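pipeline: protein-struct stage 2 | run 1193 | Gibberellin regulated protein
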Amino acid sequence: MAKFFAVFLLALIAISMLQATVYASGGHRGGFGPGSLTSSQCPGQCTRRCSQTQYHKPCMFFCQKCCAKCLCVPPGFYGNKQVCPCYNNWKTKEGGPKCP
């Protein structure tokens, strides 16, 4: 039983690493990632990204600023910033995240 558990755990780790490698190399689908947008697509993607926040105006302002620089907006309404490193790594003077 211990061998089965060890093999199962190693298989899960290997699959996770493979998925992360494919994701990081741009092998993911769906139009997300660095440079995946044009500047004209930013308003629509930021509207989607900011649609569920109570702070819509600041979210839209900073999202569009980040999108113009990075040419990508992460999928979903929150998180998933690892898909767009530029969006994820741009920080405020205080060290907090600049992009929503």
